[in-house]
């Protein structure tokens, strides 16, 4: 019995294997995680709202529901897209997904054929890239700088490669760099992609976790041609265990996602969808998000100030205004994966940057997470990491 050819293209996550390497030594301070802080989950309100939901809608919660998503949730999410993102969304634009990871997987399934090209930022979220791999596509990276995707590089890639079908971008507090695109770059990006027959995935799980600076409109709000497929998620604003996320797309695309979902899993978990409805309608979700923003800001600021104080001057890093990650660039020639074992031995860990590229990636980079570590761990861990870097940089 042989597995499908498709499975040859599905590889175990390189990041998971790094995390295993790190977990093999006890007591390591890990900046390698990619999880939201569980101490911030609104446990009391979730307990109360869940009980209230069962009392009011228990039978519905345990019954089959619509493939597209629970009707009330579609309404809540469409309103949220209007209010928070300035997108003229209606329930017919929304499809509920099991995490935005399912939105990524379904988008790849809907649009990609063998030989198509997917364009992703250099670097990017590997989960998005891996979702495309089964379909026999190839990948091209477009450079990014502190203002976001580099438009001249994007123009070149699109002009030279007519087989580009899908662009995968994370304009807000990107995983792994923490950077947000400027308004100017977003406008330029839309102007460029509107000239090509392509589909854009705007993956935005971190957009609401802005803890500094002004909100910048999402690509979807500037999408006059229905080319942008927006992915939103409750994972970072509420909790990832519920696995409730959504697609906001042109109605003709939404119909196709619904058709696909019928054959994939019939529908998302009705219980979890109704938990989100109850919580979002009757509890202080905006106050909760403000708490997350404040807590992450404090940790991010602390980490950055310690990095400024302790890291060698030749080491550069991003200064995120939101999200969960800081991206560190080491001097040319220094291999972050090569010194990871030494760092782990010293008691601190990170994810080497090379694992965040569709093709070959920069070896002299690392991703640091600041959400699941305590202030004390940040204080200790950054000094330990600085000592390792000083030996090499
Ligand atoms: C950029 C990005 N997209 C998507 C996801 C998946 O999120 P979800 O929990 O909604 O599936 C993650 C998870 O960390 C992410 O960083």
Helix content: 40-55%
* Oligomer status: single chain
Topology-level CATH name of the largest domain: Aspartate Aminotransferase, domain 2
Number of domains: 2
Q: Would you list the SSEs in sequence order as H and E? A: HHEHHEHEHEEHEHEEEHHHEEHEEEH
Bound molecules: pyridoxal-5'-phosphate
Helical segment tally?
13
Query: Could you name the CATH homologous superfamily of the largest domain?
Result: Type I PLP-dependent aspartate aminotransferase-like (Major domain)
Structural class: alpha/beta
Mean pLDDT: 96
Largest sheet: 8 strands, mixed
Round the Cα radius of gyration to an integer and report it.
Answer: 21 Å
| Tally of DSSP β-strands | 14
Q: What is the CATH-assigned architecture of the largest domain?
A: 3-Layer(aba) Sandwich
Organism: Anaerotignum lactatifermentans DSM 14214
Protein name: 2-aminoadipate transaminase
InterPro entries: Aminotransferase_I/II_large, Class-I_PLP-dep_aminotransf, PyrdxlP-dep_Trfase, PyrdxlP-dep_Trfase_major, PyrdxlP-dep_Trfase_small
Cofactor: pyridoxal 5'-phosphate
């Amino acid at each position: 019995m042989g597995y499908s050819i498709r499975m040859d293209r599905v590889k175990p996550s390189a990041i998971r294997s790094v995390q295993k390497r790190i977990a093999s030594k006890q007591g390591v301070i890990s900046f390698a995680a990619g999880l939201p802080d569980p101490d911030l989950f609104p446990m009391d309100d979730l307990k109360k709202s869940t009980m209230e939901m069962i009392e009011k809608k228990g039978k519905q919660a345990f019954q089959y529901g619509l493939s597209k998503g629970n009707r009330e949730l579609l309404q809540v999410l469409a309103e949220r897209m209007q209010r928070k993102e300035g997108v003229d969304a209606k329930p017919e634009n929304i499809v509920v997904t099991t995490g935005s990871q399912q939105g990524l997987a379904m988008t790849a399934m809907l649009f990609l054929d063998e030989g198509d090209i997917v364009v992703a930022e250099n670097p990017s979220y590997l989960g998005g890239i891996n979702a495309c791999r089964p379909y026999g596509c190839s990948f091209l990276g477009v450079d990014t700088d502190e203002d976001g995707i580099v438009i001249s590089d994007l123009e070149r890639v699109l002009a030279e490669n007519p087989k580009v079908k899908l662009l995968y971008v994370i304009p807000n507090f990107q995983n792994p760099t923490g950077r947000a695109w400027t308004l100017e770059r977003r406008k330029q990006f839309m102007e460029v992609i509107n000239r090509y027959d392509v589909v854009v995935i705007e993956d935005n799980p971190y957009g609401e976790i802005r803890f500094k600076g002004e909100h910048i409109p999402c690509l979807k709000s500037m999408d006059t041609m229905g080319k942008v497929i927006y992915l939103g998620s409750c994972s970072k604003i509420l909790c990832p265990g519920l696995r409730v996320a959504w697609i906001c797309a042109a109605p003709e695309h939404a119909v196709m996602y619904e058709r696909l979902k019928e054959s994939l899993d019939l529908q998302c978990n009705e219980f979890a969808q109704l938990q989100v409805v109850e919580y979002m309608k009757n509890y202080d979700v905006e106050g909760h998000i403000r708490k997350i923003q404040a807590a992450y800001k404090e940790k991010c600021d602390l980490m950055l100030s310690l990095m400024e104080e302790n890291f060698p001057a030749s080491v550069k890093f991003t200064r995120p205004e939101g999200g969960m990650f800081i991206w560190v660039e080491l001097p040319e020639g220094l291999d972050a994966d090569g010194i990871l074992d030494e760092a782990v031995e010293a008691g601190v860990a990170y994810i080497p940057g090379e694992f965040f590229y569709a093709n070959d990636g920069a070896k002299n980079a690392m991703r640091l997470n600041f959400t699941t570590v305590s202030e004390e761990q940040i204080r200790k861990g950054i000094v330990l990491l600085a000592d390792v870097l000083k030996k090499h940089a």
